[in-house]
Amino acid sequence: MTTASPAAREVAPRGGPDRLRWALSDAWVITHRDLSHWARRPAQLVVGLLFPVMMVLMFAFLFGGGMVIPGGGDYREFLMPGMFAMTMVFGIETTFTAVSTDATRGVTDRFRSLPMASSAVVAGRSAADMLNSVAGLAVMIACGLAIGWRWHEGPGAALAAVGLLLLLRFALLWIGIYLGLAIKSPEAVMAVQILVWPLGFLSNTFASPATMPGWLGAVAEWNPLSATVAATRQLFGNPGWGGDSWAAQHAPLMALAWPLLILVIFFPLSVRRYRRLSR
């Protein structure tokens, strides 16, 4: 990849609309690059899509027989909203690995030396990861329908639930981008997994916070993942744990507030970190 001269940079459009089109075009180039990598390595993509499916089958058919839902209800309908949200959380690892690999190999610095919009690299990465998340969520929904899960509150509520799931993923991917730029070591994915898995399991996904010790139950109820899980269960019309806490009673509001708060914190941190990378 060649390095652009300062003179070449001067041909970039400076006007508002032209600059926006330039930035969107550059972001799409990065997105297309990431998508082409998946096309060349389909096995990696397939494994990433099927791993959550294996977890669904394990919990639904191995552990499901021993699960009792308060107030009754089908365990598989209880399970699927939690698994949808878990899939969104596990995407942090994918984002972190891709960003840190490019930063470590100098690919990110090469992009920054080109006459392209400074936002294109992170914007293109986020767009590619969101497309991957949409595909993963579609696979999970198909899996849920195959094992008997259904939504009961109409298509509008179901689409709202899907929107909350993708909002959570969009917010969390900026954590992955920031960590990938800050750590710049693909080997540190194990450390990210240590953070991600407790976030996923220390929630209301598989167990009621009411059954946990008081302080641990409070942490689980205020977990951003718990808010999205509880809200999507309501929107899908699936059974849930309920709860008397403020967080449990206002799950849809919290499912909006938590991702927005994460975005407010990690989006500017990611942009600042990207701008501070060595040229």
UniProtKB/TrEMBL annotation:
It is a multi-pass membrane protein. It comes from the Bacteria. Belongs to the ABC-2 integral membrane protein family. Residues 43-277 form the ABC transmembrane type-2 domain. Keywords: Antibiotic resistance, Cell membrane, Membrane, Transmembrane, Transmembrane helix, Transport. It is found in: Cell membrane; Membrane. One of its GO terms (cellular component) is ATP-binding cassette (ABC) transporter complex. Coiled coil: none annotated. Its main location: membrane. It holds the Pfam family ABC2_membrane. The chain crosses the membrane at residues 45-66, 78-100, 134-151, 157-181, 188-207, 251-271. GO terms for molecular function: ABC-type transporter activity. The keyword Cell membrane applies. This is Transport permease protein. The keyword Cell membrane applies. GO terms for biological process: response to antibiotic.
